[in-house]
Amino acid sequence: MAIFIRPPSSLSFLSSQTPSSLFTKPPKPHTFKTTSNLTRCQLSTLPILSFDGTKVGETSINLKSASPDTARAVVHRGITTDLNNKRRGTASTLTRAEVRGGGKKPFPQKKLGRARRGSQRTPLRPGGGVVFGPKPRDWSVKINKKEKRLAISTALASAAVNGIVVEEFGGKFEKPKTKEFIEALRRWGIDPKEKSMFFMTEDEVEDNVVLSSRNIGTLRMLTPRTLNLFDILNADKLVFTKGGLEYLNEAYGADDGEDEEDFEEETEEGTEAEEIVLPPSDA
């Protein structure tokens, strides 16, 4: 006796009577490719002060800066990388297997009524080993050169609002005198108790200037070789010389040809609908 089994309704899409529109792919939508600039040009105007503290003019600092969406992350990655790379990684402790002593059982296991103990060098006792203590390790972190340069230029651009430019003052100090340097800071509107950063080129660094300022704990004297993110972010006031400002504009300034549109539209041509041809059913 032959038994006929009706196919389930879920397989009814294999019927030849199914309209072909169900097997038609919709046309691909137009795609828009947006390429936003990761950097921008940030222009700031700085006053130029003489050694006496009088304003003699103005100048501009034009640095490449990260976009507002990524600036904080770029600077954070740069400063954490610098701080990690400064760590020596020589901290070391002894575990209970490495500490000296503890080979003999201090007292019998039973009959004394005390808690059982197998060694005097257990981490629970003074002089014992350290549990999960530090061991020598390498803390260095790699960062791309372009990313580090972008972090420095972004930090300088954001801190330029607290910056001034002073004229050459290396020849003003006939001999090392910290008191005279503090008086010059006050004439420039800088409180000696505030953290300040001086940036100048190697040619502008005079011995009398270095000796006069090295006794001021809140002041940092930097050159292109020692420029770093920590001192930039830690300073309340930034002081540039004309040579130092020219170096920053040249080394960290915005390149020409970066005034392109923020967004580019790239439209793909719409493709025609494709039909899927299924083999005829046996029904």
Helix content: 10-25%
User: What oligomeric state best describes the polypeptide chains here?
Assistant: single chain
Q: What's the overall geometry? A: elongated
Run of helices and strands: EEHHEHEHEHEH
For the sheet with most strands, the description reads: 6 strands, mixed
Question: Spatial order of the strands in the main sheet?
Answer: 2-1-3-6-4-5
Task: Write a concise keyword list for the protein shown above.
283 residues, alpha/beta, six-stranded mixed beta sheet, 6 helices, 6 strands
Structure report:
The chain is α/β, with parallel strands linked by helices. Helices cover 23% and strands 14% of the residues. The chain has helices spanning 71-86, 145-159, 178-187, 207-213, 229-234, 242-251; strands spanning 39-49, 55-66, 163-166, 196-199, 219-222, 237-241. It has a six-stranded mixed sheet.
Topology:
Elements: E1 39-49, E2 55-66, H1 71-86, H2 145-159, E3 163-166, H3 178-187, E4 196-199, H4 207-213, E5 219-222, H5 229-234, E6 237-241, H6 242-251
Helix pairs in contact: 1-2, 3-4
Short description:
23% of the residues lie in helices and 14% in strands. It is of the alpha/beta class.
